[in-house]
Write a structure and sequence with these properties.
The complex is a heterotrimer. In chain A, about 75% of the residues lie in helices and about 0% in strands. By secondary structure, chain A is mainly alpha-helical. Chain A has a domain of about 90 residues: Rna Polymerase Sigma Factor, Chain: A. The longest helix of chain B has 28 residues. The chains are: A mainly alpha, B mainly alpha, C alpha/beta. Chains B and C meet through α1, α3 and α6 of B and α2, α3, α4 and α6 of C.
């Protein structure tokens, strides 16, 4: 049975189809998530992902990208987890970047890169204070003191610019956030 | 994890799972939610009242153990018919619960209940389960009897003279057994309740004022009630020794 | 010590089903061998607290099953698979295992996961929501094993557990026995000698209610050398001991 048929079966409450989907997809999903999350959290997110598959199979449109659909659910679950636990704006890009590793869904990867680009664009023009602060602190991983020196401002200013950058990114990501869109793509 | 199938992580497609992620454990978490049965509000309430989710499940399951329910129902309806035909002496009415209890014990005992042997080894006592099943059988029959009473006067007689009071008696027995943690005490309380109901009913009819004022009748009635309880206990005792 | 039997007797009328059996068992897998009518099932039923002994002392999981409270505590930690396990045809496998999990007083919060684990452990994961009436004999037996292990029992009693299982399933079942035997007392009553050879650390051979041999499978094999009748070493030991006991 191919993936589309399996998901259709899951929509008809066939738990053996869910079992088969799990055995096919859980390993690579686990590997991808492991790049972003610790092992114990990967297990939790994976569990929630397949429960979401069980509940939401009826909403799947068979277009041949079952793997991408399931990854989309996994990503949302991971994002939910990250949101509950810490600075999602930092790890979310890592999560989006993890998309690139799966060969089967270039469309997904492309969409994610566009999302990320838009969010970064919301920080203002290149070289602008918010964007530059974000770039130095989160992309180049410099400390507050180093950024203050590089930009010629006080540490307090750096911190408030970083705070603003996070706010802007959060708002931009939320615009295209599948969670707040309320369900399937 | 040993098992008959390949472990869930041994699948066919792209690449192995990371070594520190236990996919078997993940699947168990998924399966637990997918396979679980969600008890309805009645069962949950019963579980709290009876202080035992297992007992509540036995209560709810009873009608679906169809053969047992049919046999039990036939016996209790015959007992009820016996009362309706009774000539006004209390003996039939006092013995009827014992007959009914014997019928229910038989219907859910060895020979009829396929999993009886296993039920005997359960932490939830099989006598409590029997009490709960008696309540289920009487309760269900009382509800059916109430529906039938609309159509037939004879049905009304059996329903209001026998089924409904016996449902109340079973409920009393179960409640007492739950509180005292002893099915035997529960049965005794139920039997006493039935005797009292009978006496007060007859007293209202006026037929038994003599019985109440005349002390020489009271002892035989009590003795009979004790005999009823003893019969029920005997019938429900462990074990039916076969090899 | 999970099981302590001292001079246990059980009579049915004039028949002595179990005659003076003594046994001490801690964790491990114990095989109970013997011909039909030897008293294996009666002994197992007494250990399952389903049948009271006529005389003798019985202590299970360091408790006395004669009184209600301790008996209930024993039963919470007990797993039992009777020889003739009936089933409710309309139940699914998951319903069946869950029903007995609840009757064993398992905390309801733990039940779904324990049921899933037990069902996967016996290889019925793809039949969890199938009705019992659709299962084969071997699958029904495995469902019976699942209910016995659902509460992770400290004392696991299995009466003819491999009836209806094909050879591959019997191999997997023996692995399950060894797994449980690490931390619990598992007592398996069987007339299939090869089940005993593969999984058991100790063997008891019963005949006419009495224990006629108690030792390791190796010792039973030794008894058979040069004496016994049979195709396999353990079978020869079995028949040699029985012949000696009856002469």
């Amino acid at each position: 049975m191919d993936d589309d048929a399996l998901i259709a079966a899951v929509a008809r409450r066939d738990d053996t189809a869910l079992r088969e989907l799990f055995s096919r997809h859980a390993p690579w999903l686990a590997a991808r998530l492991r790049g972003v999350l610790p092992a114990a959290e990967v297990e939790d997110v994976l569990q929630e992902t397949f429960l979401a598959v069980w509940r939401g199979a009826a909403g799947y449109r068979p277009e041949g990208v079952a793997g991408g659909w399931i990854w989309g659910i996994a990503r949302r679950q991971a994002a939910l987890w990250l949101r509950r636990r810490g600075p999602a704006e930092l790890l979310l890009p890592a999560l989006i970047a993890a998309d690139g590793q799966h060969p089967g869904d270039p469309a997904e990867a492309a969409v994610s890169r566009v999302e990320l680009a838009r969010a970064v664009g919301a920080l203002g023009p290149e070289g602008g204070p918010a964007r530059e602060t974000w770039r130095l602190m989160y992309v180049e991983d410099k400390s507050v003191a180093e950024v203050a020196e590089l930009m010629g401002v006080s540490a307090g200013t750096v911190k408030s610019r970083a705070h603003r950058a996070r706010r802007l990114m959060r708002a931009a990501l939320r615009q295209h956030d599948p969670v707040s869109e309320g369900g399937g793509r | 994890m040993t098992g008959w199938d390949e472990p869930m992580s041994g699948h066919r497609e792209a690449g192995p799972a990371p070594g520190d992620v236990d996919l078997d454990r993940v699947w168990l978490g998924v399966a637990a939610q997918v396979w679980r049965r969600r008890p309805g509000p009645a069962e949950r309430a019963a579980g709290r009242l009876l202080r035992s989710p297992g007992l509540a499940r036995a209560l709810v399951t009873t009608p679906s153990l169809l053969l047992g329910w049919v046999i039990a129902t036939v016996v209790i309806l015959l007992a009820g018919a016996g009362i309706a035909l009774g000539t006004g002496t209390p003996w039939v009415a006092l013995l009827a619960p014992a007959v009914a209890a014997a019928g229910i014990a038989y219907a859910y005992g060895p020979g009829i209940d396929p999993a009886w042997e296993l039920s005997q080894s359960m932490a939830v006592s099989d006598r409590m389960v029997l009490l709960v099943r008696a309540l289920a059988v009487f309760g269900l029959n009382a509800v059916l009897g109430l529906a039938a009473s609309a159509a037939s006067g004879a049905a009304a007689a059996v329903t209001f003279g026998w089924l409904v009071p016996m449902t109340a008696v079973c409920a009393l027995a179960l409640a007492t057994a739950t509180v005292t943690k002893s099915p035997n005490v529960g049965v005794a309380a139920g039997s006493a309740g039935w005797v009292i109901a009978l006496l007060s009913g007859k007293a209202a009819d006026g037929q038994f004022t003599a019985a109440i004022t005349d002390a020489s009748f009271v002892l035989p009635y009590l003795a009979l009630a004790v005999c009823c309880a003893a019969v029920v206990l005997f019938v429900t005792r462990i074990p039916r020794g076969t090899r | 010590m999970n099981v302590e039997l001292t001079d246990l007797n059980r009579k049915f009328g004039h028949t002595r089903a179990v005659a003076g059996v003594s046994l001490e068992a801690g964790p491990g897998v114990f095989g109970l061998l013997g011909p039909n009518g030897a008293g294996k099932t009666s002994l197992l039923r007494m250990m399952a607290t389903v049948l009271p002994p006529t005389s003798g002392k019985l202590r299970l999981l360091e408790r006395d099953p004669g009184s209600y409270g301790p008996r209930r505590e024993i039963r919470r930690r007990l797993g039992y698979l009777p020889q003739n396990l009936g089933y409710y045809p309309g139940f699914t496998v998951a319903d069946f295992v869950e029903y007995f999990a609840l009757l064993k007083d398992m905390p309801p919060g733990q039940v779904p996961r324990a049921v899933a684990a037990a069902i996967e452990h016996v290889g019925l994961g793809d039949r969890a929501r199938s009705k019992l009436r659709t299962l084969s004999g071997g699958m029904l037996r495995r469902a019976g094993i699942a209910q016995a292990i659902v509460n992770e029992p400290e004392l696991l009693l299995l009466d003819e557990p491999t009836a209806g299982l094909d050879p591959e399933q019997r191999v997997s079942f023996r692995a399950l026995l060894r797994d449980f035997g690490q931390r619990s007392t598992v007592i398996v009553s069987t007339h299939l000698v090869e089940d005993v050879a593969a999984a058991c650390t100790e063997v008891m051979l019963m005949d006419a209610g009495r224990v006629v041999f108690h030792g390791t499978p190796g010792e039973l094999i030794a008894r058979g050398e040069g004496h016994g009748v049979g195709d396999a070493p353990l079978e020869r030991g079995y028949s040699a001991v029985l012949a000696a006991a009856r002469s």
